[in-house]
Specification:
By secondary structure, the chain is of the alpha+beta class. Helix content is 24%, strand content 21%. The chain has an eight-stranded parallel barrel. A seven-stranded mixed β-barrel has the order 1-2-5-4-3-6-7. Strands 10, 11, 14, 15 and 16 form a five-stranded antiparallel sheet that branches. It is globular and about 95 Å long.
Length: 884
């Protein structure tokens, strides 16, 4: 997701609306007890934040009460008396967004009723001064945490085996009853009143059997008591289409592939040096004719496939991690291949600028095999549609084999995890958490509705048990699947404390006890600041600024926008940047402004890129293009400080990722249409170099080195294989010209897209594609072999990295950087450039051997004149020089 507009740049709402009607997924029949008269849901303006205190937005400062009815004899008309009060300093700190609302104190004589009151219909009531009776619903997460959190946070939930016997446990403190539906029969469960956990222990023969919980609970969204048949939030395995959980022990030796216990991993690369390839699992192999397992986990065991050969070449050059887009169980894709729809058209027969491809793909999208996976259903089970058989534990074994396969070619594995939202909430069939503890796991707004700023039903990791679920799930993936890193989607919607708790739990994992070294697991995420949690409104967020100094990286959108130009949500996609011809090779868009405006913006972009190349350090001091001595934090980025990192490794550099147009497509929009394929490829490599040659971690989208296109699709989360699949064989093209991108997210850009897609000159040939990839691998080799790209501290960066030509006389479109014994020139202009660093006159430099003898013979012509300290670099070239 991009931060520029501080709103989601993708993804799910439309497809989920269509997919929720799918058959074969979670069933949720409800039964209404005769004693519970249905009532319409009402706003929940009151919030019971702990056993002592209720906050009620809009209430009068007079006595009130909480009325409850659990449906059991003797509870009808029961109440807890409330008197006007005030929040304590601790309560204000815990609930800052409630500070200005009227507060009430629960009468000490009634506090013993709290646990009972929470298991039924609950309303806040008050008689106003004019005699009217006012009522509202009550939000209960705070009081649940107060009453149960201290004990529940230590509970082992889900299926836990001891000497072969399973115990099943679920946290459901507001439930009236919970039973286990296992293998066609119902088994009672026992409640622990101190923790709110329900448990049952079974015999050995429960292993492998399907189960659900039968949870009888008051559901505020429908205003009645329901009995939900729901899977386990802590599932470790599932039947097909997530219909049932399975009683499975992940330590069962039968689930371990050969060699799993002694898996040899590539050497861990610290985050500050990580070079990461972001990859969607299905994209990787679904159209790879050389793969024996297209679209599956097992494609990563096909060592001789084109895709695996390419990944191996990237690993040999210096790529250290593969970041997999979400591969946990999702709500959207039918897992059985027989149930998956596909486009019923001859897509290849249509013109490259036709509307027909997207029409056909869209008709199948709700039931096809494709989705990015940002639609969580069960957080800690692999997605079944990628398995050879979605029924049972094949997905467990095959996910582990995938990790083995990647490790075997020198790559460690990162998982993209999405704990910030669920696919649905309330009584929706795709809602798991909210049907077990209604109103707890989702983040609620002041009126009691679920927050949806993340695009979907937001979760509340600030609540004890949602925070626990995040930590427990990550630890399970690390221990049981040997995952080497985690990328947190919309991490700014998490409390900083929650992400630090993840770090602490991982650091506690040891090879001797757990089979993994948790301290070597890397963490990074999207630290965007928006929505109901923005500006630390509810808690200290895990945002870019707040995560500085933690060793957990956040995506750096500043340098991304500077090299591409504009932002992801520009009405005119032709807004240019440093790497796309701004001022030096302008297009015809009026959005770029006149030449003076273009020059000024280009020079500012160069300052943003300088800060990015330092690792986006807040305190790094340099001379900006206005001639002022500034810190990174004093450079402006849309009204925010550009530099926010405290040390290399706090900010993750990238020029493109799965969100928004691919880098090739962005350049297609922004460069003058007549730009040659060769020059487009050179600028692609130069843009990638601004991340690849930066301090700190860097990420690139899989296929960017191959000039990957999605036919100008800016939001391909549900655009199917036709627009998304990777093409490892250059004879198949790069994906450009496969029709106009889907209308839902792109129709407003069709007038710009149509003439580009129709232009055969924008479809690069094999020589261009292969040349770009080889040149990018050369940059990776330089990064991997030069220690100066892995500086440990901000002080080291300040002393060893500089921009000697920065200032009022700086060349527009050119950046010159010194780094220890290296000098690097980024020439984004269409002309050769001569950069004279007088301080280097008399010092011997030469083009780095990797480039001097590398794939790109144009770069090999770059030269250095020792007498004057002048570096000469060809157009559209990044050249690295080494002191001899």
């Amino acid at each position: 997701m991009s931060s520029t507009a501080r709103r989601p740049g993708r993804r799910l709402a439309a497809v989920l609306a269509l997919a929720l009607g799918a058959t074969g997924l979670l069933t949720a029949p409800t039964a209404q007890p005769a004693h519970a008269a249905p009532s319409a849901p009402q706003p929940a303006l009151a919030q019971w934040i702990d056993r002592d205190t209720v906050v009620w937005k809009g209430a009068e400062p007079s006595d009130a009460q909480l009325e409850f009815d659990t449906g059991r004899a003797g509870t009808a008309g029961k109440r807890l008396r409330l008197t006007p009060g005030r929040l304590t300093p601790a309560e204000r700190a815990a609930f800052p967004h409630l500070t200005g609302y009227p507060a009430f104190t629960v009468d000490p004589r009634d506090r013993g009723l709290a646990r009972t009151a929470l298991r039924g219909r609950l309303v806040a009531a008050q008689r106003t001064a004019d005699g009217r009776r006012t009522t509202t619903g009550v939000q209960i997460p705070g009081v649940l945490d107060d009453l149960y959190g201290a004990r529940a946070r230590h509970a082992a939930l889900g299926p836990v085996f001891h000497h072969g016997r399973p115990t099943l446990s679920v946290w459901a403190p507001t439930a009236r009853t919970v039973a286990l539906e296992l293998d066609g029969r119902t088994v009672p469960m026992r409640r622990d009143d101190r923790s709110g956990v329900w448990r049952v222990q079974g015999p050995r023969d429960w292993a492998g059997k399907p189960y659900r919980y039968l949870v009888t609970v008051w559901a505020p969204t429908v205003g009645r008591t329901v009995t939900n048949k729901v899977t386990d939030p802590y599932s470790t395995a599932l039947t097909a289409d997530s219909a049932r959980s399975l009683v499975v022990d992940l330590d069962d030796p039968r689930l371990a592939p050969t060699g799993w216990a002694g898996l040899h991993k590539p050497a861990a690369v610290p985050l500050r040096r990580a070079r990461i390839q972001e990859l969607h699992l299905r994209d990787f192999s679904v159209e790879d004719r050389t793969s024996r397992h297209p679209g599956q986990y097992l494609a990563f065991t096909d060592r001789r496939s084109d895709g695996m050969r390419h990944l191996k070449s990237l690993a040999a050059a210096g790529t250290s991690y593969v970041h997999l887009l979400p591969a946990f169980d999702g709500a959207t894709v039918p897992e059985k291949r027989a149930d998956q729809d596909r486009p019923r058209c001859d897509l290849a027969s249509y013109a490259p600028d036709s509307e027909s491809q997207q029409e056909c793909v869209t008709r199948a999208a709700a039931r096809d095999a494709y989705n990015w996976g940002y639609d969580p259903l069960h957080y800690t089970v692999p997605e079944g549609s990628y398995a050879s058989d979605p029924e049972g534990t094949a997905r467990t074994v095959e996910f582990r084999r995938m990790v083995q396969g990647l490790n075997g070619i020198g790559l460690r594995t990162v998982m993209d995890v999405v704990y910030n939202h669920t696919a649905a909430s309330g009584q929706d069939p795709h809602s798991v958490l909210d049907r077990i503890v209604p109103g707890y796991y989702q983040r609620l707004l002041d009126d009691g509705t679920v927050a949806t700023s993340t695009c979907c039903s937001g979760t509340a990791p600030e609540h004890t048990m949602m925070g626990k679920l995040v930590v427990d799930s990550v630890v399970t993936w690390a221990k049981e699947y040997k995952v080497d890193g985690f990328r947190f989607d919309l991490m700014g919607h998490h409390p900083k404390a929650n992400i630090l708790a993840v770090r602490k739990a991982l650091d506690a994992l040891t090879p001797a006890r757990d089979g993994v070294d948790g301290k070597k697991i890397i963490l990074y995420g999207e630290g965007w600041n928006f929505g109901e949690a923005a500006n630390d409104a509810r808690f200290v967020q895990a945002t870019q600024r707040n995560m500085a100094g933690t060793g957990i990286a956040t995506f750096n959108d500043r340098a991304r926008d500077a090299v591409r130009g504009g932002g992801p949500f520009d009405a005119d996609p032709r807004v240019q940047g440093f790497g796309s011809g701004l001022f030096t090779d302008p297009n015809t868009s009026p959005a770029n402004g006149d030449p003076a405006a273009q020059r000024a913006r280009l020079l500012h972009y160069q300052d943003l890129l300088k800060v990015g190349l330092t690792g986006n350090l807040a305190d790094y001091t340099f001379t900006d293009t206005a001639g002022r001595r500034v810190k990174g934090s004093q450079v402006d980025y849309n009204g925010a400080p550009a530099g926010y990192a405290a040390a290399p490794g706090d900010a993750l550099a990238y020029a493109d990722a799965h969100d928004n147009e691919t880098l090739y497509d962005a350049l297609a929009y922004k460069l003058p249409q007549g730009t040659s394929p060769t020059d487009r490829a050179r600028l692609q490599v130069l843009a990638l170099a601004t991340a690849a040659l930066s301090q700190g971690p860097a990420l690139s989208q899989a296929g960017s080195d191959l000039l990957r296109s999605k036919s100008l699709d800016r939001n391909s989360f549900n655009s199917g294989d036709w627009f998304n699949a990777l093409h490892w064989d250059c004879a198949d093209g790069n994906g450009f010209g496969r029709g106009l991108p889907p209308a839902a997210d792109n129709k407003d850009k069709w007038p710009y897209a149509k003439p580009l897609l129709a232009d055969p000159a924008l479809r690069p040939g094999c020589a261009t594609i292969r040349g770009a990839s080889a040149a990018y691998r050369d940059l990776l080799r330089i990064h991997a072999t030069e220690p100066a790209f892995g500086l440990r501290t901000a002080a080291a960066v300040q002393s060893q990295l500089s921009f000697p030509l920065s200032g009022k006389d700086e060349t527009p479109g050119v950046l010159t950087m010194r780094l220890a014994d290296l000098a690097i020139v980024f020439n984004a202009t269409p002309h050769p450039q001569h950069q004279t660093v007088t301080a280097l006159a008399g010092h011997p430099y030469a083009l780095h051997p990797v480039q001097a003898h590398g794939a790109d013979r144009t770069t090999a012509t770059a030269s250095y004149a020792e007498a004057t300290g002048t570096f000469t670099v060809p157009p559209y070239t990044v050249a690295v020089f080494h002191r001899r």
